[in-house]
Every structure is written in structure tokens, then in C-alpha cells.
Amino acid sequence: MSRRISLIALDGLPEVEPGADLAALIADAAAAQEVALRTGDALVVAQKIVSKAENRYVRLGEVEASPRALELAPQAAKDPRLVELILRESTEVLRCRPGALIVRHRLGYVHANAGIDQSNIRSDDTDPRVLLLPADPDRSARELRERIAARCGAEIAVIINDSAGRAWRHGVTGFALGTAGFTTVENRIGEPDLFGRPLQITEVAVADELAAAASYLMGQAAEGRPVVLVRGARLQPSAAGSGALIRPLDQDLFR
Prior knowledge:
The chain is α+β, with helices and mostly antiparallel strands and 255 residues long. The protein contains six helices and twelve strands. The chain has two domains: 162 residues, CATH 3.30.1330.100; 75 residues, CofE-like domain (CofE-like fold, Alpha-Beta Complex), CATH 3.90.1660.10. A hairpin with a 2-residue loop joins strand 4 and strand 5. The chain starts with 5 loop residues before the first strand and ends in a 24-residue tail after the last strand.
């Protein structure tokens, strides 16, 4: 485990448009700050710019609300067309209150409004559009990792992060949506504590901890810092993605 980790927000990325080469934009931003990407580094990349590059926009004017969306919209105080998109991106509605639909996303994690957002995107009030999460965040992370390696010659880890609230605490925090190149959950069970007693249940959500730290640097409003370089984390290499972070339904005590 590292004793020192550095986090560097990469400034100067332009507004990301559909089809943008994120690897090139990130490499150019790092070079402008005289930061050379190294093997062993990790990049935490905001979900929003990944979704923008992948053109995950939907115009609400092109959406027809289903009967279920029309039923839930008044309870959620949301546009029925937006509720329809939330339902399409989800497998289950867990809770509903004004301002939020808490759902199980089709990729397995629990998220308010299926992660669909209108903040920090250009939109016309007469024909509003929203931005969905990446279709496959792990694939997005793998592809970005491969393009960075080809461009910079560095074998890095990649985390695509988003922010969410938690049922038992106020405020949002960052978490990992997609990952590539490292072990996302480190099992410490059986290791001794300070007094030699073996740990019984401790598993560390490494990806989420780094995602949260980077999210603090990124900010939530107009900061414009969607990429953070993490150096010194000493991550364990792995070809697995983010699936280990999702608790199986039969172990979920908060449903």
C-alpha cells in the first residue's frame, strides 16, 4: 500500500464533442502542464466527457413516454420523457420522491435517475437534450487505456467516475463506473491488524476511493477539470473490470 499518492488535475481540456479523441485531448493537456504519463499511473476521467465523446445525447422531443413513465412523472416531479429514459436505462425502480428516481441501472449499480443528467451540457430550452451514461463504461475504460498506451507508451490504469448520493449520509461522492487495468477491490481478509488479530471482513474498494479523491479535485459545477492523474497508488494489475464493486442482490441488505 502506498504511503504517498499525488493527484493532479489536468487543466485546459476543450469542450468535448461527439467523436472526440479523448486519448489525444488528455495527452495534449498533460504535455501542456509538462506532466509525462508513466506506467503505473492512473487516470480518473469524468463520465460526462466519456458520454459526450460517445454521443450519448438524447433529445427529449424524440422520446415518447410510456404509461409507466406517465404514472411516475408526477411523483418524481420530472418530465415524463425524462422518466421514460430513466426507465429504459434501468431494470428496477427502488424509490421515488420529488426530484429523484432511485433505480437499479441496467449495468447493476444503484443510481439516482439512472445517472441521466442535464448539467454541464449545451441544450436548447425549446428542444432540450440530456446525457446518458456510457453504454459500457468498462469497455470505454479499456479502449481509452489502449489508446493512451499507443500514444504515450505508458501502461496506465483508467477509472471512469461519476458522483452519487448515499442512502445513509448527506452529500454526493465520487465512485467508479468503469475501470481498466487494475484490481478494483482488494481483499485484506486474514491480514493482521496492529495487534496481530486477523481481519475478518475487510475488502477495500480501491477504485471508489480513488474515484472519490479525484472527484473532489474535479468539482461539481463550472470547474472544468474532468481528468485527474493519480500517481503512486501502486495498483494491482488486473484485466478484470468494475464488476467486483457491485454487491450481489442476495447480499444487498438495503433494498
